[in-house]
Amino acid sequence: MIQQRRKRAYAPDPDAPDQICDAPECTLPGEYKAPKSRSEIREFHWFCLEHVREFNSSWDYYKGMSPAEIEAQLRADASWQRPTWPLGQLGHSPRFEAAFEDHLHAFNFGSRPMSPQAVEYPPPELRDALGVLGLIWPVSFSDVKAKYKQLAKRHHPDANGGDRDSEEILKSINLAYATLRGKFPTQLAHPSRPAAE
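and the corresponding structure tokens:
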């Protein structure tokens, strides 16, 4: 059985146009594409290997953006550039919840039914981040940290052969962790479960 050789990561682009490198005074063939700018992400420069490496080492997608613009871009990336909205007032819809009301208390496993007033909902600004990490409110910061480490290790691109999907999942995990760690540290402490930090 003949084993097919794996394509090298730095192999020239087979669709490269027959032109010289776009770097000034370079006469080598331009076989590697690089985006012209953030706004022209589908328009490319064509460089030789040396100049595309130089371009990549200095590329900063967020260059020139304000902190608010960077945060908005990260939030959009976390939802794959799709709009999001809450399911009714404060993120839960009474009509939706009523459809799944447990009249026979089949899911209480012998405990007394909980009144709607006893159910704790997370603050609206934390719901998306908790959902990404798969955590249920109330939660301590040590739980958040442990879950983040577990998910980051599982979805890191290096642990998944450089998979682009893993990279996108890791971005949303990082954003969720940053939201929980940086913006609302006091709300993560729960009386029954003290925060570790």
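(Above: one complete record from the training split.) The beta strands are 32-35, 44-47.
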